[in-house]
Specification:
Length: about 190
């Protein structure tokens, strides 16, 4: 069942325009980020990232990392990286608790977004995701939850689809086992 849910997630996320990469672990995820990051990378604080010293690992891999002074640095950053609370396989959607301004800046301003997701936190559909969503709101009823399905897209009145006008042009979802199995933790 877990393999089928993961397969459905990958298919739906790629159909929405995301690039999904299955990593063996954090080391492979950092190598992928080092290869694909086009310049300055915003790396806000999030629990699983702090636990694995993500910012430190990225710096050691040669990436220019911004992990403070986001309001000043975000407009010039080319990429951002965050964790993910959970995902829904039927639509390929990521759910992120994004109350912290740094998370919102990292996921909306740069042209490239990297999202680190533990595959254990992929739910079959939005109905299965109700309980973790309820838990997030019980923890803090005034939090922001961002739902991200593919790169940013918009269409004008003539139905001309444009990618990246109101957010990232590219979304890279890195499936990293063992990162964090709790939907309350990014």
């Amino acid at each position: 069942m877990v393999k089928e849910v993961k397969k459905n997630f990958v298919s739906a996320a790629e159909a929405a325009g995301a690039q999904v990469v299955a990593c063996d672990g954090v080391k492979q995820a950092v190598e992928y980020l080092a290869e694909k990051t086009p310049g300055i990378l915003l790396c806000p604080a999030f629990a699983s990232g702090e636990r694995i010293d993500l910012a430190g690992q990225l710096r050691r891999a040669g990436i220019t990392v911004v992990d403070s002074d986001f309001r000043e640095q975000a407009p010039t950053a080319q990429a951002g990286v965050t964790g993910v609370n959970f995902a829904m396989a039927d639509t390929g959607t990521l759910a992120l608790e994004s109350t912290a301004e740094e998370i919102r800046l990292a996921t909306t301003l740069p042209e490239v977004q990297f999202a680190l997701l533990d595959p254990q936190k992929i739910y079959a559909d939005s109905l299965e995701a109700v309980e973790p969503l309820r838990q997030l709101h019980l923890r803090d009823p005034r939090n922001y939850i961002a739902y991200i399905t593919g790169p940013s897209r918009t269409a004008d009145i003539e139905r001309v689809l444009t990618i990246g006008v109101h957010g990232p042009k590219q979304l890279h979802i890195l499936l990293v086992p063992g990162l964090s199995e709790s939907p309350l933790e990014m």
